[in-house]
Write a structure and sequence with these properties.
Cathepsin D, subunit A, domain 1, mainly beta, globular, seven-stranded mixed beta sheet
């Protein structure tokens, strides 16, 4: 497929209540901002008999930093100087199915000696914007990236550095300055796209994402699709057609943390087979599908990077917004509500009903040490954002774009 589609780009959507997110206090993705967007051989068993396409995925668990914010899914990735054994494992990376590409704070990998990518006019630099108005800025570098037990793949990644050059005002005024402020060490973006922008960044210097920086001066730049920041999964030699997010069920009242698995590839190995009868919902040119609740229809997407279910509820749903200070981006119904939504492709095909619950965010979030719940959400106009709660208790299959389609989701 030619990359002519209009991409949502990086859309990490986070709404973090200050009262329970000490590590993310002041985060541009949270607080009162509300909504935001081991080495193994390929084809053989990895460490301890585990297939190499297996990655540990935790929500506020073993791969997350202590004191993480609510419903944060984390993975660890090994980053290397290309072609060498000089490597470093970076944990506390937000697994984000709503963006594309690996982005890590420059300060965490400065000792690896990664080489920044040069373009005419200076160093290739990128701005990634989010729906809450915040952004990440920094140069693009080549790195060897090891996912689970897979062999390393050499891909362009972004080194998050708000002090690099001078970010244009169009990039936003709230740039992530460091891991503590952001609430994570970086982002592993594994959306349905193979690269993060597409043809718009290849043909127009005013694309708003890619820049050439020389000293403090930065100007818009084009970047060929083949050379843009890539989805590392798409670069794998075998398990490159998608991924499976597997997380256990959690009661509405919540849990301190949960441990799950991220499987790379779909139908490429014995452990990632797509079950018979599973309905695929095809994504459109924006990487979206359609969700209807009580007759109202919205553009929709699945996004592990969002820590709640965000949508515009019908009045009949009985979902008032919390009035408590610091919780204005969350719903606070009087009791746990059970709701249904119909998901389908934008064409109307592949329809499937999804049952979900929403509870009082203040009650749930104040229940220390609970940091994981499927029943938290908040208001969002235009979109239905199936955030992390959607992934709890179901295996979610995410197919990457191909020459004949924009990808798909199944569960």
């Amino acid at each position: 497929m030619t990359s002519s589609e209009s991409r949502r780009g990086a859309t990490v959507l986070l709404a973090v209540a200050l009262a329970i997110a000490s590590a993310a206090c002041g985060s541009s993705h949270g607080g009162t901002n509300g909504i935001d967007g081991t080495n193994g051989t390929n084809g053989t068993n990895g460490t301890n008999g585990t297939l190499p396409n297996v990655m540990t995925l935790s929500v506020n668990g073993t791969t997350c930093s202590a004191g993480s914010y609510w419903n944060k899914p984390c993975v660890s990735v090994q980053i290397c100087r290309p072609g060498t054994s000089t490597c470093k494992t970076i944990s506390d990376l937000l697994l984000d199915t709503g963006s594309t590409g690996l982005r890590v704070f420059s300060s965490l990998v400065s000792d690896l000696g990664l080489t920044n990518v040069s373009v005419s006019g200076g160093t290739l630099t990128e701005c990634i914007g989010y729906l809450d108005g915040s952004a990440q800025w920094g140069p693009v570098a080549m790195a060897g990236v090891k996912l689970g037990g897979e062999d390393a793949v050499t891909v362009p990644i972004q080194l998050i550095d708000s002090t690099f050059g001078t970010a244009p005002t169009s990039c936003g005024t709230t740039l992530d300055p460091d891991p503590a402020s952001a609430g994570f060490n970086g982002i592993l973006g594994v959306a349905n796209w193979k690269e993060d922008c597409g043809s718009s960044c290849a043909n127009d210097t005013a694309n708003g994402m890619y820049y050439a920086c020389s000293g403090a001066s930065c100007a818009g730049a084009t970047r060929a699709v083949s050379d843009q920041v890539k989805n590392p999964v798409a670069a794998l030699p075998l398990d490159n057609n998608g991924l499976i997010v597997k997380l256990p069920s959690v009661a509405a009242a919540g849990s301190a943390s949960v441990e799950g698995t991220l499987l790379l590839g779909i139908g490429t190995r014995s452990n990632n087979t797509l079950p018979a009868g599973v309905i695929k919902t095809q994504l459109d040119f924006n990487g979206e599908f359609k969700t209807a609740v009580s007759g109202g229809s919205s553009r929709a997407f699945t996004d592990t990077g969002s820590n709640g279910l965000f949508f515009n509820p019908p009045a009949s749903a009985g979902l008032p917004v919390c009035q408590n200070t610091g919780y204005a981006d969350w719903f606070c119904p009087a009791s746990i509500l059970s709701l249904n939504a119909d998901n389908s492709a934008s064409s109307g095909l592949g329809s499937r009903t999804v049952a979900f619950q929403l509870g009082n965010a203040v009650t749930i979030m104040d229940n220390t040490p609970v940091y994981v719940s499927p029943a938290v959400g908040g208001p969002l106009a235009t979109y239905f954002d199936w955030g992390l709660p959607f992934f709890l208790g179901r295996d979610v299959y995410l197919g990457l774009e191909t020459s004949s389609g924009y990808g798909w989701v199944a569960y």
